[in-house]
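<purpose> Linking amino acid order to shape
<body> The protein record starts here
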Amino acid sequence: MNGTLALVAFAASVCAAAMVEAYWYRRQLLKIPFRIHVNGTRGKSSVTRLIAAGLRSGGIRTCAKTTGTLARMILPDGKELPIFRPDRANVIEQKRIVQTAVGHNADALVIECMALQPLLQSVCELKLVRSTHGVITNARADHLDVMGPTRLDVARALSATTPISGNMFTAEDRADSLSVMQEACDDRASQLMVTTADDANAITQDELARFSYLEHAENVALALKVCQSMGVAREVALQGMWDAQPDPGAMRVHAQEVHGDTWHFVNAFAANDPESTTRIWDAAYDYFPGVSQRVLVMNCRVDRADRSTTMAEAVATWAPADRYVIIGSGTDIFLRRLLKRGIHPDKVLCLGNSSGPELVESVLESFRREQRVTTAPRPHFQSGTAVAERTEEMESSAMMLMGIGNVAGPGMALADHFGQDQGWERFRTPVTRPARVLEMV
Protein backbone atom coordinates (compact mmCIF):
# COMPACT_ATOMS: atom_id res chain seq x y z
CA MET A 1 0.00 0.00 0.00
CA ASN A 2 2.82 2.38 0.84
CA GLY A 3 4.38 1.66 -2.57
CA THR A 4 1.13 2.51 -4.30
CA LEU A 5 0.82 5.79 -2.42
CA ALA A 6 4.40 6.67 -3.30
CA LEU A 7 3.74 5.96 -6.98
CA VAL A 8 0.59 8.11 -6.92
CA ALA A 9 2.45 10.92 -5.20
CA PHE A 10 5.25 10.74 -7.74
CA ALA A 11 2.77 10.81 -10.65
CA ALA A 12 0.98 13.77 -9.10
CA SER A 13 4.23 15.68 -8.69
CA VAL A 14 5.20 15.00 -12.32
CA CYS A 15 1.80 16.22 -13.53
CA ALA A 16 2.06 19.34 -11.37
CA ALA A 17 5.53 20.08 -12.69
CA ALA A 18 4.31 19.64 -16.26
CA MET A 19 1.40 22.00 -15.67
CA VAL A 20 3.69 24.63 -14.17
CA GLU A 21 6.14 24.29 -17.07
CA ALA A 22 3.30 24.57 -19.63
CA TYR A 23 1.93 27.68 -17.87
CA TRP A 24 5.38 29.28 -17.78
CA TYR A 25 6.02 28.50 -21.47
CA ARG A 26 2.63 29.92 -22.46
CA ARG A 27 3.54 33.17 -20.71
CA GLN A 28 6.83 33.22 -22.63
CA LEU A 29 4.94 32.89 -25.91
CA LEU A 30 2.65 35.77 -25.02
CA LYS A 31 5.69 38.04 -24.65
CA ILE A 32 6.08 37.80 -28.45
CA PRO A 33 3.06 39.61 -29.95
CA PHE A 34 3.55 38.30 -33.51
CA ARG A 35 4.37 34.65 -34.13
CA ILE A 36 4.60 33.60 -37.78
CA HIS A 37 4.71 29.82 -38.37
CA VAL A 38 5.99 28.98 -41.87
CA ASN A 39 5.17 25.59 -43.40
CA GLY A 40 4.95 24.14 -46.91
CA THR A 41 6.61 21.78 -49.37
CA ARG A 42 9.02 24.17 -51.06
CA GLY A 43 10.42 27.57 -50.15
CA LYS A 44 9.90 27.52 -46.37
CA SER A 45 13.39 28.73 -45.52
CA SER A 46 13.39 31.42 -48.21
CA VAL A 47 9.98 32.74 -47.19
CA THR A 48 10.98 32.70 -43.51
CA ARG A 49 14.01 34.85 -44.31
CA LEU A 50 12.05 37.15 -46.60
CA ILE A 51 9.34 37.81 -44.02
CA ALA A 52 11.85 38.40 -41.24
CA ALA A 53 13.90 40.77 -43.39
CA GLY A 54 10.81 42.71 -44.42
CA LEU A 55 9.61 43.07 -40.83
CA ARG A 56 13.06 44.19 -39.65
CA SER A 57 13.15 46.78 -42.40
CA GLY A 58 9.77 48.04 -41.20
CA GLY A 59 11.09 48.64 -37.69
CA ILE A 60 9.59 45.53 -36.07
CA ARG A 61 12.10 43.87 -33.77
CA THR A 62 12.21 40.38 -35.28
CA CYS A 63 13.90 37.05 -34.65
CA ALA A 64 13.72 34.15 -37.09
CA LYS A 65 14.64 30.51 -37.22
CA THR A 66 15.15 28.40 -40.34
CA THR A 67 15.40 24.64 -40.54
CA GLY A 68 16.41 24.33 -44.20
CA THR A 69 19.86 23.59 -45.56
CA LEU A 70 21.57 24.67 -42.34
CA ALA A 71 19.48 25.42 -39.25
CA ARG A 72 19.97 29.06 -38.26
CA MET A 73 18.76 31.50 -35.60
CA ILE A 74 18.54 35.03 -37.02
CA LEU A 75 18.71 37.83 -34.45
CA PRO A 76 17.05 41.27 -34.66
CA ASP A 77 20.23 42.84 -36.09
CA GLY A 78 20.37 40.23 -38.86
CA LYS A 79 23.24 38.31 -37.28
CA GLU A 80 22.96 34.53 -37.70
CA LEU A 81 23.84 31.79 -35.25
CA PRO A 82 23.96 28.03 -35.94
CA ILE A 83 21.45 25.87 -34.07
CA PHE A 84 23.25 23.55 -31.67
CA ARG A 85 21.92 19.99 -31.81
CA PRO A 86 23.55 17.45 -29.50
CA ASP A 87 21.71 14.69 -31.35
CA ARG A 88 19.19 14.46 -34.16
CA ALA A 89 16.77 17.32 -34.89
CA ASN A 90 13.87 17.40 -32.43
CA VAL A 91 10.81 19.67 -32.47
CA ILE A 92 11.38 20.48 -28.78
CA GLU A 93 14.22 22.76 -29.90
CA GLN A 94 11.49 25.24 -30.89
CA LYS A 95 11.14 25.98 -27.17
CA ARG A 96 14.75 27.14 -27.03
CA ILE A 97 14.10 29.37 -30.05
CA VAL A 98 11.13 30.99 -28.32
CA GLN A 99 13.16 31.59 -25.17
CA THR A 100 15.99 33.12 -27.21
CA ALA A 101 13.54 35.43 -28.99
CA VAL A 102 12.10 36.51 -25.65
CA GLY A 103 15.62 37.17 -24.39
CA HIS A 104 16.17 39.53 -27.34
CA ASN A 105 12.88 41.35 -26.64
CA ALA A 106 11.52 40.34 -30.03
CA ASP A 107 8.16 41.72 -31.12
CA ALA A 108 7.94 39.10 -33.85
CA LEU A 109 9.24 35.57 -34.32
CA VAL A 110 9.23 33.98 -37.77
CA ILE A 111 9.78 30.27 -37.30
CA GLU A 112 9.97 27.50 -39.88
CA CYS A 113 8.05 24.32 -39.12
CA MET A 114 10.51 21.46 -38.69
CA ALA A 115 8.04 18.56 -38.37
CA LEU A 116 7.05 16.12 -41.13
CA GLN A 117 4.72 13.74 -39.30
CA PRO A 118 1.18 15.21 -39.49
CA LEU A 119 0.59 14.73 -35.77
CA LEU A 120 3.86 16.46 -34.90
CA GLN A 121 2.98 19.36 -37.19
CA SER A 122 -0.19 19.85 -35.18
CA VAL A 123 1.73 19.61 -31.90
CA CYS A 124 4.24 22.21 -33.13
CA GLU A 125 1.44 24.66 -33.82
CA LEU A 126 -0.94 24.04 -30.92
CA LYS A 127 1.65 23.51 -28.17
CA LEU A 128 4.97 25.07 -29.24
CA VAL A 129 4.25 28.09 -31.48
CA ARG A 130 0.56 29.04 -31.20
CA SER A 131 1.00 31.35 -34.14
CA THR A 132 -0.83 34.57 -34.88
CA HIS A 133 0.04 34.25 -38.57
CA GLY A 134 0.36 30.94 -40.40
CA VAL A 135 2.06 30.47 -43.77
CA ILE A 136 1.86 27.53 -46.18
CA THR A 137 4.09 28.22 -49.17
CA ASN A 138 2.62 25.43 -51.31
CA ALA A 139 1.47 21.81 -51.09
CA ARG A 140 3.29 19.57 -53.54
CA ALA A 141 3.96 15.86 -53.87
CA ASP A 142 6.98 15.37 -51.62
CA HIS A 143 7.64 13.26 -48.49
CA LEU A 144 4.75 11.09 -49.61
CA ASP A 145 6.07 8.26 -47.45
CA VAL A 146 5.31 10.40 -44.38
CA MET A 147 2.55 12.81 -45.40
CA GLY A 148 1.09 10.94 -48.40
CA PRO A 149 0.17 8.89 -50.22
CA THR A 150 -1.41 11.70 -52.30
CA ARG A 151 -0.80 15.41 -52.81
CA LEU A 152 -4.06 16.23 -51.04
CA ASP A 153 -2.86 14.28 -48.02
CA VAL A 154 0.19 16.56 -48.01
CA ALA A 155 -2.13 19.59 -48.04
CA ARG A 156 -4.03 18.16 -45.06
CA ALA A 157 -0.83 17.51 -43.14
CA LEU A 158 0.49 21.02 -43.76
CA SER A 159 -2.85 22.52 -42.73
CA ALA A 160 -2.21 21.18 -39.22
CA THR A 161 -0.20 24.36 -38.58
CA THR A 162 -3.23 26.60 -39.17
CA PRO A 163 -3.42 29.14 -36.32
CA ILE A 164 -6.39 29.49 -33.98
CA SER A 165 -8.26 32.75 -34.63
CA GLY A 166 -5.46 34.09 -36.80
CA ASN A 167 -4.57 34.57 -40.45
CA MET A 168 -3.30 31.85 -42.78
CA PHE A 169 -1.35 32.93 -45.87
CA THR A 170 -0.56 30.69 -48.83
CA ALA A 171 0.72 30.84 -52.39
CA GLU A 172 -0.83 27.47 -53.26
CA ASP A 173 -2.92 27.78 -56.43
CA ARG A 174 -4.78 24.47 -56.77
CA ALA A 175 -8.48 24.62 -55.96
CA ASP A 176 -8.56 21.20 -54.25
CA SER A 177 -5.64 22.04 -51.95
CA LEU A 178 -7.11 25.46 -51.18
CA SER A 179 -10.38 23.77 -50.25
CA VAL A 180 -8.51 21.60 -47.73
CA MET A 181 -6.81 24.67 -46.26
CA GLN A 182 -10.11 26.55 -46.10
CA GLU A 183 -11.65 23.70 -44.11
CA ALA A 184 -8.78 23.90 -41.62
CA CYS A 185 -9.22 27.67 -41.33
CA ASP A 186 -12.95 27.30 -40.76
CA ASP A 187 -12.29 24.71 -38.07
CA ARG A 188 -9.86 27.02 -36.23
CA ALA A 189 -11.68 30.31 -36.91
CA SER A 190 -8.86 31.71 -39.04
CA GLN A 191 -8.96 33.67 -42.28
CA LEU A 192 -7.33 32.27 -45.43
CA MET A 193 -5.33 34.84 -47.44
CA VAL A 194 -4.33 33.53 -50.89
CA THR A 195 -1.44 34.97 -52.90
CA THR A 196 -2.60 34.75 -56.51
CA ALA A 197 -0.81 34.63 -59.87
CA ASP A 198 -1.62 38.32 -60.29
CA ASP A 199 0.25 39.04 -57.03
CA ALA A 200 3.27 37.11 -58.29
CA ASN A 201 3.16 38.84 -61.68
CA ALA A 202 3.21 42.19 -59.90
CA ILE A 203 6.79 41.40 -58.81
CA THR A 204 8.74 42.91 -61.69
CA GLN A 205 11.84 41.47 -63.33
CA ASP A 206 13.80 44.51 -62.16
CA GLU A 207 12.78 43.75 -58.55
CA LEU A 208 13.75 40.08 -58.88
CA ALA A 209 17.09 40.99 -60.45
CA ARG A 210 18.04 42.94 -57.30
CA PHE A 211 18.23 39.76 -55.25
CA SER A 212 21.71 38.24 -54.90
CA TYR A 213 20.27 34.83 -55.78
CA LEU A 214 17.43 33.44 -57.89
CA GLU A 215 14.21 33.95 -55.97
CA HIS A 216 10.71 32.86 -56.95
CA ALA A 217 8.23 35.64 -57.60
CA GLU A 218 5.49 33.83 -55.67
CA ASN A 219 7.74 33.60 -52.59
CA VAL A 220 8.35 37.35 -52.67
CA ALA A 221 4.66 38.09 -53.20
CA LEU A 222 3.69 35.80 -50.31
CA ALA A 223 6.22 37.37 -47.93
CA LEU A 224 5.12 40.87 -48.96
CA LYS A 225 1.50 40.03 -48.20
CA VAL A 226 2.45 38.90 -44.70
CA CYS A 227 4.57 42.01 -44.09
CA GLN A 228 1.88 44.33 -45.40
CA SER A 229 -0.72 42.69 -43.13
CA MET A 230 1.51 43.76 -40.23
CA GLY A 231 1.77 47.35 -41.39
CA VAL A 232 5.05 47.31 -43.35
CA ALA A 233 4.91 49.15 -46.68
CA ARG A 234 5.76 47.21 -49.82
CA GLU A 235 8.81 49.31 -50.77
CA VAL A 236 10.20 49.19 -47.23
CA ALA A 237 9.78 45.41 -46.99
CA LEU A 238 11.35 44.87 -50.42
CA GLN A 239 14.43 46.89 -49.50
CA GLY A 240 14.95 44.73 -46.44
CA MET A 241 14.54 41.56 -48.48
CA TRP A 242 17.13 42.68 -51.03
CA ASP A 243 19.65 43.43 -48.28
CA ALA A 244 19.10 40.19 -46.34
CA GLN A 245 21.44 37.22 -46.39
CA PRO A 246 19.97 34.32 -48.41
CA ASP A 247 19.61 30.76 -47.18
CA PRO A 248 22.66 28.57 -47.90
CA GLY A 249 20.43 26.43 -50.10
CA ALA A 250 19.09 29.36 -52.14
CA MET A 251 19.18 28.82 -55.87
CA ARG A 252 22.12 30.55 -57.52
CA VAL A 253 23.68 30.45 -60.97
CA HIS A 254 27.45 30.69 -61.41
CA ALA A 255 29.24 31.11 -64.72
CA GLN A 256 32.78 30.59 -66.00
CA GLU A 257 34.54 30.79 -69.34
CA VAL A 258 35.88 27.36 -70.38
CA HIS A 259 37.83 27.16 -73.66
CA GLY A 260 36.06 30.25 -74.94
CA ASP A 261 32.55 29.05 -74.04
CA THR A 262 30.48 29.96 -71.00
CA TRP A 263 29.50 27.22 -68.59
CA HIS A 264 26.60 27.76 -66.21
CA PHE A 265 26.04 25.89 -62.95
CA VAL A 266 22.47 26.13 -61.59
CA ASN A 267 22.34 25.30 -57.89
CA ALA A 268 18.83 23.87 -57.54
CA PHE A 269 19.74 21.15 -55.02
CA ALA A 270 17.14 22.52 -52.60
CA ALA A 271 14.43 21.79 -55.19
CA ASN A 272 13.59 18.26 -54.17
CA ASP A 273 10.06 17.60 -55.36
CA PRO A 274 9.13 16.69 -58.96
CA GLU A 275 6.91 19.70 -59.61
CA SER A 276 9.45 22.31 -58.50
CA THR A 277 12.36 20.72 -60.33
CA THR A 278 10.31 20.30 -63.50
CA ARG A 279 9.54 24.01 -63.54
CA ILE A 280 13.17 24.93 -63.00
CA TRP A 281 14.49 22.52 -65.64
CA ASP A 282 11.95 23.71 -68.21
CA ALA A 283 12.74 27.36 -67.52
CA ALA A 284 16.52 26.90 -67.60
CA TYR A 285 16.67 24.53 -70.58
CA ASP A 286 16.87 27.23 -73.28
CA TYR A 287 17.55 30.18 -71.03
CA PHE A 288 21.32 30.56 -71.29
CA PRO A 289 22.68 31.86 -74.62
CA GLY A 290 24.83 29.46 -76.63
CA VAL A 291 24.30 26.40 -74.42
CA SER A 292 24.30 23.23 -76.51
CA GLN A 293 25.02 20.62 -73.82
CA ARG A 294 22.97 20.14 -70.68
CA VAL A 295 24.00 18.05 -67.68
CA LEU A 296 21.61 17.08 -64.89
CA VAL A 297 23.25 16.24 -61.53
CA MET A 298 21.05 14.28 -59.13
CA ASN A 299 22.24 14.10 -55.51
CA CYS A 300 20.68 11.01 -53.88
CA ARG A 301 20.29 10.15 -50.20
CA VAL A 302 19.93 6.60 -48.99
CA ASP A 303 17.32 7.75 -46.44
CA ARG A 304 15.24 9.41 -49.18
CA ALA A 305 14.51 6.37 -51.34
CA ASP A 306 10.96 7.53 -52.07
CA ARG A 307 12.30 10.83 -53.38
CA SER A 308 14.81 9.07 -55.63
CA THR A 309 11.99 7.04 -57.17
CA THR A 310 9.63 9.95 -57.79
CA MET A 311 12.41 12.17 -59.09
CA ALA A 312 13.60 9.52 -61.55
CA GLU A 313 10.04 9.13 -62.85
CA ALA A 314 9.85 12.89 -63.41
CA VAL A 315 13.32 13.27 -64.93
CA ALA A 316 12.55 10.62 -67.55
CA THR A 317 9.69 12.78 -68.88
CA TRP A 318 11.67 16.02 -69.15
CA ALA A 319 13.32 17.55 -72.18
CA PRO A 320 16.38 15.29 -72.43
CA ALA A 321 19.72 16.07 -70.87
CA ASP A 322 22.96 15.22 -72.64
CA ARG A 323 24.29 13.62 -69.46
CA TYR A 324 22.69 12.39 -66.24
CA VAL A 325 25.18 12.46 -63.36
CA ILE A 326 24.19 10.62 -60.16
CA ILE A 327 26.02 11.43 -56.92
CA GLY A 328 25.47 10.77 -53.22
CA SER A 329 24.30 7.60 -51.47
CA GLY A 330 21.64 5.06 -52.47
CA THR A 331 22.21 5.94 -56.12
CA ASP A 332 21.16 2.50 -57.37
CA ILE A 333 17.48 3.31 -56.75
CA PHE A 334 17.56 6.36 -58.99
CA LEU A 335 19.73 4.61 -61.59
CA ARG A 336 17.53 1.54 -61.95
CA ARG A 337 14.37 3.61 -62.35
CA LEU A 338 16.03 5.94 -64.84
CA LEU A 339 17.22 3.06 -67.04
CA LYS A 340 13.85 1.36 -66.75
CA ARG A 341 12.22 4.50 -68.12
CA GLY A 342 14.40 4.40 -71.24
CA ILE A 343 17.37 6.67 -70.51
CA HIS A 344 20.37 5.27 -72.44
CA PRO A 345 23.16 3.92 -70.18
CA ASP A 346 25.81 5.79 -72.18
CA LYS A 347 24.31 9.06 -71.00
CA VAL A 348 24.48 8.15 -67.29
CA LEU A 349 27.48 8.70 -64.99
CA CYS A 350 27.47 7.37 -61.41
CA LEU A 351 30.10 9.35 -59.50
CA GLY A 352 29.27 8.73 -55.83
CA ASN A 353 30.87 11.38 -53.62
CA SER A 354 33.09 12.90 -56.31
CA SER A 355 34.39 16.41 -55.70
CA GLY A 356 33.58 19.35 -57.95
CA PRO A 357 36.78 19.11 -60.04
CA GLU A 358 36.38 15.32 -60.36
CA LEU A 359 32.79 15.70 -61.53
CA VAL A 360 33.70 18.35 -64.11
CA GLU A 361 36.56 16.25 -65.45
CA SER A 362 34.37 13.13 -65.64
CA VAL A 363 31.71 15.01 -67.58
CA LEU A 364 34.30 16.46 -69.95
CA GLU A 365 35.89 13.06 -70.55
CA SER A 366 32.47 11.58 -71.26
CA PHE A 367 31.85 14.16 -73.97
CA ARG A 368 35.38 13.66 -75.33
CA ARG A 369 34.74 9.93 -75.72
CA GLU A 370 31.50 10.67 -77.52
CA GLN A 371 33.28 13.13 -79.79
CA ARG A 372 35.97 10.59 -80.63
CA VAL A 373 33.30 8.06 -81.57
CA THR A 374 31.39 10.65 -83.58
CA THR A 375 34.44 11.75 -85.58
CA ALA A 376 35.75 8.22 -86.19
CA PRO A 377 35.90 7.05 -89.84
CA ARG A 378 32.49 6.11 -91.16
CA PRO A 379 31.42 3.71 -93.95
CA HIS A 380 31.76 5.10 -97.45
CA PHE A 381 28.03 5.73 -97.81
CA GLN A 382 28.11 8.50 -95.14
CA SER A 383 29.00 11.90 -96.53
CA GLY A 384 31.96 13.86 -95.26
CA THR A 385 29.67 16.86 -94.91
CA ALA A 386 27.51 15.05 -92.36
CA VAL A 387 30.58 14.07 -90.32
CA ALA A 388 31.86 17.66 -90.42
CA GLU A 389 28.50 18.95 -89.23
CA ARG A 390 28.50 16.53 -86.28
CA THR A 391 32.10 17.42 -85.40
CA GLU A 392 31.31 21.12 -85.44
CA GLU A 393 28.30 20.51 -83.24
CA MET A 394 30.34 18.56 -80.64
CA GLU A 395 33.07 21.19 -80.56
CA SER A 396 30.55 23.74 -79.31
CA SER A 397 30.83 23.06 -75.61
CA ALA A 398 28.83 25.82 -73.94
CA MET A 399 27.26 23.89 -71.11
CA MET A 400 24.65 24.06 -68.36
CA LEU A 401 24.96 21.90 -65.26
CA MET A 402 22.00 21.77 -62.89
CA GLY A 403 22.08 20.15 -59.46
CA ILE A 404 18.81 18.79 -58.01
CA GLY A 405 17.52 16.33 -55.42
CA ASN A 406 19.13 17.04 -52.06
CA VAL A 407 21.39 19.71 -50.61
CA ALA A 408 23.14 17.58 -47.99
CA GLY A 409 26.49 15.85 -48.45
CA PRO A 410 28.09 16.01 -51.90
CA GLY A 411 25.36 18.40 -53.06
CA MET A 412 26.53 21.09 -50.66
CA ALA A 413 30.19 20.36 -51.47
CA LEU A 414 29.49 20.71 -55.18
CA ALA A 415 27.56 23.94 -54.66
CA ASP A 416 30.43 25.30 -52.57
CA HIS A 417 32.90 24.40 -55.31
CA PHE A 418 31.05 26.29 -58.01
CA GLY A 419 30.14 29.12 -55.67
CA GLN A 420 33.62 29.73 -54.27
CA ASP A 421 36.11 28.29 -56.76
CA GLN A 422 38.20 30.92 -58.49
CA GLY A 423 36.84 31.77 -61.91
CA TRP A 424 33.20 30.99 -61.18
CA GLU A 425 31.20 34.22 -60.90
CA ARG A 426 27.58 34.79 -59.98
CA PHE A 427 25.39 35.03 -63.04
CA ARG A 428 23.17 38.09 -63.01
CA THR A 429 19.72 37.44 -64.45
CA PRO A 430 19.15 39.79 -67.41
CA VAL A 431 15.92 41.76 -66.97
CA THR A 432 15.16 41.43 -70.67
CA ARG A 433 14.61 37.67 -70.52
CA PRO A 434 11.18 36.24 -71.42
CA ALA A 435 8.54 36.41 -68.70
CA ARG A 436 8.31 32.61 -68.38
CA VAL A 437 11.77 32.63 -66.81
CA LEU A 438 10.15 34.14 -63.73
CA GLU A 439 9.12 30.59 -62.88
CA MET A 440 12.80 29.82 -62.29
CA VAL A 441 13.72 33.00 -60.44
Q: What stands out?
A: Residues 252-376+385-439 form a domain with the Protein-Tyrosine Phosphatase; Chain A fold (CATH 3.90.190.20).
